[in-house]
Fold:
Amino acid sequence: MKLRELPENERPREKLIYRGKSSLSNAELIAILIRTGSRDMSALRLAEQMLSMDKNGIFSLGECSVEELCALKGIGKAKACQISAAMELGRRVAATPRKSRHRIKSSRDIAGIYMEEMRYCKKEYFNAVMLNAKKEIIASENIAIGDLCSSIVHPREAFLCAVKRSAAGIIFMHNHPSGDPKPSKEDIDVTRRLCETGRILGISVLDHIIIGDGTYISLKEQGLI
Structure:
């Protein structure tokens, strides 16, 4: 059976799009790489044959040369090069050391990372810093840019990036161009609204830090979170 004859939700490419890459078998992943089969078999069946070339399955493909892959009926140089390149990319990813992440233990930690970046800004920048369950920074994103007095923050935009990245916690942060980090009534009201949204979404608002000129205030330390 050719791949196009399968029900749409069972075709490898469609499964990857709608169910995610982890839902695919090794053969289905290889079938996406080689795209087409031969006259006698589908891309999926051809991928299964490639995996059965050696008892070590997919691990053996990383050791195969282009010539060895071409020895399999239905595999030409183009398909062999695609497989060989994909295996080499996987090897390089596995061999690349993961960039160390900042682990946040206190408001001083987070302020120290972003202080110099934000203290000289002439407008208010409202940022979100996403953390995993170990309280390591996984990403940061600007949510809003205001004028010298205020920035408008909507909970939907504030948590969108955290939801996409499956963050366990979030720290909000903005600067006061005046240099005085004392929170305004608007700062406190926005923080409380964001904390309530976080409770509904199951994403903890760990702090809201206001950056001034060489100084900062943590709303958590002030008892406002």
